[in-house]
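pipeline: protein-struct stage 2 | run 1193 | Dephospho-CoA kinase
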Amino acid sequence: MSTNSPGVVLGLTGGIASGKSTVSHYFRALGVTVIDADLIARKIVEPGQPALSEIVETFGEDVLHRDGTLNRTSLGERIFQDADARARLGTITHPRIAQEMARQSAAAFERGEPWVLYDAALIVENGLYRAFDALIVVACSPQTQLQRLMSRDDLSRTDAQRRIDAQMPLADKLKVADFVIDNDQSLDHTQAQVEELFSTINERVRTGGSARTPA
């Protein structure tokens, strides 16, 4: 985030089952610090964390498993088609996620890393992409997305399409992308794009230029 950060933060996002995790893995293999929003989100709702207590106060005890851990399936069913409930959950989790993201970014910059990636599904939906120095969107065709989701989550075509339709269209995310990774072909093709983009960003950032435009 260019205004307050000593380093460069790029956002990484995509649609459900578009291959964002694959791209994230390739960037990690190249030595980039990837801050995983989903991993942070899981950690802040572990037993004993304040966020979990607030979630129970807001949504009730039935969002917990018997062992006291968060029943993400139950909570997901509560908020899936309820915008107000999603907003209430966001007020509990988003500030804590942002705080941990800032901590991890600062630690990376203190180690001398010039840029980091913030990997999150809802960067565009919540407007957070505007705070980043650039945005990378992972894309694939609607047909590929549907087939991958059906296979990955063992869903029927109808259920998989319903989940896709509940999200922001990938086309809308592409409109605000600075870089696009096409994940509609082979893994080798995807990896080659990541390596090329890594080199491009590295050169621009290390020479003092913007991640968005050539230095």
